[in-house]
Amino acid sequence: MNDLLHLLFSRPEPDHYIGSLIADFVKGPLSPQLSYPPGVLAGMRRHRRVDSLAENHPLFRHSCQQLDTRYGRYRGILVDLFYDHIAARHWPALHPQPLDQFATTINRLLQQPRALPPTFAAQLPRRLTANWLLAYREPAGIQRALQALARRARQPNPLADGLDQLHHHHSALERDCLAFIPQMQTLLAQTPD
Known about the structure:
Number of helices: 12
Distance between the termini: 17 Å
Oligomer: single chain
Structural class: mainly alpha
Shape: globular
């Protein structure tokens, strides 16, 4: 999952939100010895759990299989972003707070003084300037995110060209995503973090 769905699957607590956003930037075990508050660590643990559940979920896997095989192992990354786009477009049915207000809340939270992983902190100004959570609503925002991911990857990859897959498979991806979200919410509610 990418940022927006991780936030949707997060507990609605500031530290949990932060943890869900920075988890990919913290490597290794999440022990209390890390310099993060317990709520941030809990958000990171939930993020990792969501990723693990998603990788094995039949709907997520089906979405990946819909995409052109030339994207290989990057299909999961594409689906992550495409699901965020679909969630952003359907946000009023998924969350009680309008997306623009929710994005403002998260952006303000991220601007409060706190310890953040250096790589995340370095990206944060660009994310805030682009209002990245709102940008997921539009294909152009997804394209910018794909280009940024492609640049950050260590190896040459086809991510920057992936937007055509969203257009080509939109109906199937939307169907999968909108069924996936409530199933994930149920799975997360049934098992403790």
